[in-house]
Design brief:
This protein has twelve helices and nine strands. It has helices at about 15-30, 35, 40-55, 70-80, 80-85, 100-110, 125-130, 145-150, 200-210, 225-235, 245-250, 250-260, and strands at about 55-60, 65-70, 90-95, 115, 140, 160-165, 185-190, 215-220, 240-245. The chain is elongated, with a radius of gyration of 23 Å. About 30% of the residues are buried. Keywords: Coiled coil.
């Protein structure tokens, strides 16, 4: 008797289901997503927008899921600006990313909505952000840059969340009328309440000039908590919240959470 052949089953997902699977995999495992883009041209067109939607750079040491700034310079120069304009929405640039690469990023990524820019106090940094005035919704930056943005006179109508790092008594928080939609602001004041009162002046400026303000978070060093809380209570404004910087503040985590605002 002839042996019976085992039945074979051939099953293929519809293209739209396959696309959904690859897209979900790319979002769930961002570090693995670039490998998915080489499966096929169709998969590449579905996965690349997810890969480029959020770019968190590093230069000093490899971090899974983050973007090597030096290697990213290659596609940044090779691909047209239209590609990055269409896909890039969230960008985190730490202080050690080279100036040249930072300049390229802002030249080609012109539709950024959520940005963390932990750079120095160079005067040209604020100028990079002015073309983003129509799209920026969340910004994590130092007060030198905020001061430069305010002096430009450019309005940022959609920005709702601003986090300001690197306290400096020489650079006060400017009036915030240029941020008409701002609802949340963080001020990193560290240990400064020990040596000067500029922080309380900054709080007054925010309260009086941010017309849509809902929350003002003060990130304070543990040594200053009691003093700051006492002075804030006298303001009688429930929108002002004092937080222990040493146990709470994580710039990267805060930025990722704020991107969902």
């Amino acid at each position: 008797m002839a042996k019976m052949k085992k039945p074979t089953f051939s099953f293929k997902f519809p293209p739209e289901i396959e696309d959904e699977i690859f897209e979900r995999a790319a979002r769930a495992f961002p570090g693995f997503a670039p490998k998915l883009s080489v499966v096929s041209k169709r998969v590449q067109t579905r996965v690349e927008p997810i890969i480029y939607e959020t770019l968190v750079f590093y230069t000093s040491r490899p971090v899974p899921g983050l973007v090597d700034a030096e290697r990213f310079a290659l596609p940044l120069r090779a691909r047209p600006a239209e590609f990055f304009t269409a896909h890039v929405r969230n960008v985190c640039i730490p202080a050690d990313v080279p100036d040249e690469i930072t300049t390229w990023i802002f030249a080609k990524c012109t539709q950024i909505r959520n940005l963390a820019l932990w750079r120095g106090s160079k005067p040209d940094v604020a100028a990079h952000l002015l073309p983003l005035c129509a799209t920026l919704r969340t910004l994590f930056v130092n007060r030198f840059v905020v001061s430069g943005m305010a002096k430009s006179g450019v309005i940022f109508p959609k920005m709702k969340y601003l986090a300001v790092a690197w306290f400096s008594p020489e650079v006060p928080i400017p009036d915030l009328e240029w941020l008409p939609s701002l609802t949340t602001i963080e001020l990193d004041i560290n240990k400064e309440p020990i040596v000067n009162d500029q922080w309380i002046k900054d709080v007054s400026t925010v309260i009086s000039t941010a017309s849509q303000l809902r929350s003002l978070f003060l990130n304070v060093h543990e040594e200053c908590l009691r003093n700051v809380k006492t002075r804030v209570r006298k303001l009688e404004d429930a929108r002002v919240v004092v937080r222990n910087e040493s146990s709470h503040w994580d710039g990267f985590k805060e930025w990722r959470n704020a991107c969902d605002v």
